[in-house]
């Protein structure tokens, strides 16, 4: 099975390069790229998945790849020790934070892009726009709070940097690893073409991460038939509880 996948990827790369070579000069303003696959299926035995991204660019152009995962509201709490006990003294709720943020470059982004470009396009962990939901939190320094989000997500392997390599000056490639705890949803993959510290163009593709197998069927049933799913869960809980009580009586 792995041999078939390798052959398929090999042929896909060859076809990709052949098509790119036939593209007219007018289309050369984008950094064209492709992925080894556009979907990831998560089942009960899922241990992570590696995807290969490959493409073509001019020799004097830099390439930056950014993968942004599904967004969610996130609450960050500040804890303090008072009289030997830990208390939540303050919390900040952020809006639309990417659960996953991957970046892939062949050099430090500070060397590839100027400060304004990095900030405007949210390229790099320090340039992700962490916007608090409550407007009053806009007037306080949230630097430490923002750093905490990045630190936590890095610890969970959901914010990560990968290496990008050039082959024969024009062909670039990077390997993106999606860990076992990767959330489901839509992922936007953006490839930026860079020259003289500025972004010349960019190109987007989508990756879908979905549940598969029996877990997905149960999830879909629960979403579409919430009442029946709830009743079924209660019945199963009663049966399991009664069975456990019966076993303990016999013991």
Description:
Helices cover 32% and strands 39% of the residues. With 251 residues, it is α+β, with helices and mostly antiparallel strands. The chain folds into two domains: 210 residues, Sandwich (Immunoglobulin-like); 39 residues. The strands form two sheets. It has a nine-stranded mixed β-sheet with strand order 1-3-10-9-7-4-11-12-2. A hairpin with a 2-residue loop joins strand 11 and strand 12. Helix 5 crosses helix 6. About 2% of the residues have low confidence.
Number of strand segments: 12
Please report the first level of CATH classification, the CATH class of the largest domain: Mainly Beta
* Residue share in β-strands: 35-45%
* Molecular shape: flat
Q: N- to C-terminal separation?
A: 49 Å
Order of helical and strand elements: HEEEEEEEHHEHEEEEHH
CATH topology of the largest domain: Immunoglobulin-like
Count helical runs: 6
Coarse structural class: alpha+beta
Q: What is the CATH H-level superfamily of the largest domain?
A: Macroglobulin (MG2) domain
Q: Main β-sheet, in a few words?
A: 9 strands, mixed
Share of residues in helices: 25-40%
- Given as residue ranges, the uncertain stretches (5+ residues, pLDDT < 50) are 23-27
- Estimate the mean pLDDT confidence: 81
Radius of gyration over alpha carbons?
A: 23 Å
Task: Provide the spatial order of strands within the biggest beta sheet.
Answer: 1-3-10-9-7-4-11-12-2
């Amino acid at each position: 099975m792995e041999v078939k996948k390798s052959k398929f990827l090999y042929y896909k790369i060859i076809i990709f390069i052949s098509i790119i070579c036939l593209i007219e000069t007018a289309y050369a303003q984008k950094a064209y790229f492709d992925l080894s696959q556009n979907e990831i299926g998560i089942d009960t035995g899922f241990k992570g998945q590696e995807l290969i991204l490959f493409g073509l660019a001019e020799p004097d152009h830099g390439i930056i790849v950014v993968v942004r995962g599904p967004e969610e509201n996130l609450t960050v709490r500040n804890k303090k020790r008072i009289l030997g006990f830990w208390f939540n003294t303050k919390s900040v709720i952020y809006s639309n934070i990417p659960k996953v943020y991957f970046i892939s470059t062949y050099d430090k982004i500070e060397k590839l892009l100027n400060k304004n470009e990095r900030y405007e396009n949210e390229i790099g962990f320090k340039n992700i726009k962490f916007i608090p939901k409550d407007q009053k939190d806009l007037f306080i320094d949230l630097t430490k709070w923002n750093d905490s989000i990045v630190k936590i997500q890095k610890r969970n392997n959901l914010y990560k940097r990968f290496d990008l390599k050039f082959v024969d000056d024009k062909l670039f490639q990077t390997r993106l690893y999606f860990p076992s705890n990767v959330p489901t949803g839509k992922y936007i993959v953006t490839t930026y073409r860079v020259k003289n510290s500025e972004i010349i163009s960019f190109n987007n593709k989508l990756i879908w991460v979905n549940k598969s197998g029996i877990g997905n069927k149960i999830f879909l049933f629960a979403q579409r038939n919430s009442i029946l799913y709830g009743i079924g869960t209660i019945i199963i809980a009663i049966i399991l509880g009664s069975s456990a009580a019966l076993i303990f009586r016999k013991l």
